[in-house]
Amino acid sequence: MIKACLFDLDGVVVDTAVYHYKAWKKLANSLGFDFTEVQNEELKGVSRMDSLKKILAWGGVSKSGEEMNALATQKNEWYVDMIQQIKPGEELPGAKEFLQKIREAGYKTALGSASKNAGIILNNLGITNLFDAIIDGNSVTHSKPDPEVFLKGAEAVGVQPNESVVFEDAVAGIEAAIAGGMYSVGIGQPEVLTKADIVVPGLYDMSIEKLKSLEKISK
Ligand code: G16
Ligand code: MG
């Protein structure tokens, strides 16, 4: 029986990808190169340092470990400045309503995000209280597709992995759910999220019936 829903943040609950993109683009430009919105897709769900490594490779730029730390810090300062402006109501369509609906129905909820800034974002949206547990980039050592972030989320709400459903927009996040032995709902396009148990365009298209229908699949 499904007892918990575990949510990725960026691309599922809120669209912060646009702010990550602006901040990374500014950093790349300061180093004398640029990258496209298509390349930016590859950064979704990827940790800050791994994102920086990819971007530097795109620009053919090599930096020492110390320089990389400084660059990641600079990007984060720009990013944090941008996310200060996030206001209640800026959740992705249907996200807040679905969270409320499943909590009323008795499901546990947890956040499972790669972002170290998840706490600020949830506070600015005013939806921190819709999660029983928050597991973010500060509490994990392994990035998705490692299942750590979701295993910790299930554990924090006292539910077994095979009683948990992961909502994810990134391929690496769906892989993390599979590696953790959990159900997965892809948020986006079925052609991209091919390994998800089901795919919906957004949480506005999710329902308790669809959630329960996953139980037909054995985990
Ligand atoms: C998010 C974004 C990624 C970002 C990562 C780390 O992941 O999708 O682009 O690089 O968090 O964010 P920060 O630099 O704030 O720690 P998720 O897991 O919420 O989709
Ligand atoms: Mg995401």
Structure overview:
- By secondary structure, the chain is an alpha/beta fold.
- The protein folds into two domains: 4-15 and 91-216, Rossmann fold (3-Layer(aba) Sandwich); 17-83, Orthogonal Bundle (DNA polymerase, domain 1).
- It contains nine helices and six strands.
- It has helices at residues 17-30, 37-40, 48-59, 65-83, 95-104, 118-125, 148-156, 171-179, 208-213; strands at 4-7, 108-112, 133-135, 164-168, 183-187, 198-200.
- It has a six-stranded parallel sheet.
- The radius of gyration is 17 Å and the shape is globular.
- 41% of the residues are buried.
- The mean pLDDT is 97.
- The structure holds 1,6-di-O-phosphono-alpha-D-glucopyranose and magnesium ion.
- This is Beta-phosphoglucomutase.
Overall number of structural domains: 2
What is the count of β-strands? 6
C-alpha Rg, in Å? 17 Å
Annotated CATH homologous superfamily of the largest domain:
HAD superfamily/HAD-like
The structural class is alpha/beta
Q: Which ions, cofactors or small ligands are bound in this entry?
A: 1,6-di-O-phosphono-alpha-D-glucopyranose, magnesium ion
Shape: globular
Keywords: Isomerase, Magnesium, Metal-binding
Protein name: Beta-phosphoglucomutase
Family: Belongs to the HAD-like hydrolase superfamily. CbbY/CbbZ/Gph/YieH family.
Binding site for substrate: 8-10, 24, 43-48, 51, 75, 113-117, 144
